[in-house]
Amino acid sequence: xxxxxxxxVITGGTRGVGAGIARSFLAAGARVVVCARRPPxxxxxxxxxxxAYLPLDLRDPAAVHAFFALVAHRYGRLDCxxxxxGGAPYRLLGEGGAxxxxxxxxxxxxxxxxxxxxxxxxxxxxxxxxxxxxxxxxTRPSPGTAAYGAxxxxxxxxxxxxxxxxxxxxxxxSLVLGMVRTELAHLHYGDDAGIAAVGATVxxxxxxxxxDVGAAAVFLASDRAGYVSGASLLVHGGGERPAFLxxxxxxxxx
Length: 254
Prior knowledge:
Layout: E1 7-11, H1 16-27, E2 31-36, E3 45-46, E4 49-50, E5 52-55, H2 61-75, E6 80-83, H3 98-126, E7 129-135, H4 146-166, E8 171-177, H5 185-189, H6 192-199, H7 210-221, E9 232-235, H8 243-247
Parallel strand pairs: 1-2, 1-6, 2-5, 6-7, 7-8, 8-9
Antiparallel strand pairs: 3-4
C-alpha cells in the first residue's frame, strides 16, 4: 500500500475530521497514532487496522516533547505529523475577555508550532512532512470566531515559513478546509434540513466529509507530493457563492 511502514501522528485524531484523516491513513497502510486529551468513544479503525491512542494536552510543551519521545521509542521513526487539533466555540470578540480568546489562539496556532518543533528531529531523519489543517476562516471575516480565524491565518503563514526554513529535509503544507460534516455538524448548522440547506450553498452541493479531507492529507504525505511544499490546498467544494449575486436584481438565471 502507498504508505506501508510509515508512521503518522494526527493530533485531535479521536473524532470528527481528525478521525476521518486517521482512517484514510490507515487505509493507505500507515501506522497511525492519534492523540487528544480524552480517548475516543470507540477505537479509530479502518479495514481491520486500528490507530493507537496516546493522551496529550497540546497546550503543555513538556508533555508534547515527552509524547514525541515516546513515539520515537515505540516506533523508531515518524514520517508525517498532521496538526489537526483545534476549533473554537462561538463567541463574539467583545464577550468573554482577552484571556478566553487567547486560549483559542494557543490551541489553533501555538500548539501546532509546539508539536512541529518537537517532531522536527524525527521528521528530518525520515525526510517526512507536516500537514497543517487550516480553515477558510483564516482568509475571510469570521464574526463570532475572530480569534480562531486570526489563528488559522497565522497557521497558514507559519506553514509557508517552515517550508522554507526546513527544506529540503521536511516538507510543510496546509489543507484549507471549508465546511465539513462531522458528528458535531448540528451544533454549527442545525438539524438535517439546516445541514442540507448550508450544503446547498457550496458549489459542489454538499459539505465535505472527513474522508475528503483524509484523502487530501494522504496525498500531501505521500511520494506523489514529493515536490509540493509551502502549498495551501483548498478543500472547500468550490468555496462560497458571493452574496451580492443573490441580492442583485439583474442577471438572474431563469
